[in-house]
Specification:
With about 200 residues, this protein is an alpha/beta fold. It has one domain: Class I glutamine amidotransferase (GATase) domain (Rossmann fold), CATH 3.40.50.880. Helices cover about 25% and strands about 30% of the residues. The longest helix is centred in the last third of the chain and has 13 residues. It starts with 5 loop residues before the first strand and ends with a helix. The mean pLDDT is about 95.
Length: about 200
């Protein structure tokens, strides 16, 4: 990894402990913090989250972190709900998000044989070549749990299919997102976290 610290933004997500453990397995100690100075000074910032968009945005606003996150210039990774918070708007609660990825998070629509929430292992399809995807085979599998999704667009690095294609990995500038849980996605998740830390 490039030099410097890694921090996890305390956005109230319930998967923070497991993300910290996944980083620990890579030899990285990432403190959980809401301290603006610590976040600003970190070499890498991870925004994890499990839950709903509106309460998460309310927590970031209460902590005074919204403008700080929008202004970061180092690599920033949103995980699961954290990825959705990077987008412009979410249909979950009709809330405006951080606006760093030009996309609207949409409610997934159940259909016969198509369960929502989308839960379990699914295949990633790389749409672009990018250092974040280095060493990830086409059709490698990752573990998903979510009811809202980001449509595919110019920002999509990898997609996944559940009824229709949606974004599994996104980027815009120095901001990156993974809809799945890298900490629950075995070697694929570990490699993606390693790649992010090496950006």
């Amino acid at each position: 990894m490039a030099g410097g610290s890694v921090v996890l933004v305390d956005a109230g997500g319930t998967n923070i402990g497991s993300v910290r453990y996944a980083l620990h397995r890579l030899g990285v100690e990432a403190p959980l913090t809401a301290d603006p100075d610590a976040i600003r000074a970190a070499a890498r910032v991870i925004l994890p989250g499990v839950g709903a968009a509106a309460p998460a945005m309310a927590r970031l606003r209460e902590l005074g972190l919204i403008e700080l996150l929008r202004g970061l210039t180092q690599p920033v990774l949103g995980v699961c709900l954290g990825m959705q918070l990077l987008c412009a708007h979410s249909e979950e609660g009709g809330v405006d998000c951080l606006g760093l990825i030009p996309a609207t998070v949409r409610r997934m629509t159940p259909a016969p044989g198509l369960r929502v929430p989308h839960m379990g292992w699914n295949r990633l399809r790389a749409l672009k070549t990018h250092p974040l995807l280095e060493g990830i085979a086409q059709d490698a599998q990752a573990y998903f749990v979510h009811s809202y999704a980001v449509p595919t667009g110019d920002y999509t690095l990898a997609s996944v299919e559940h009824g229709q294609p949606f974004s599994a990995v996104i980027t815009h500038g120095n901001f990156f997102g993974m809809q799945f849980h890298p900490e629950r996605s075995a070697a694929v998740g570990a490699r993606l976290l390693h790649n992010f830390l090496a950006l």
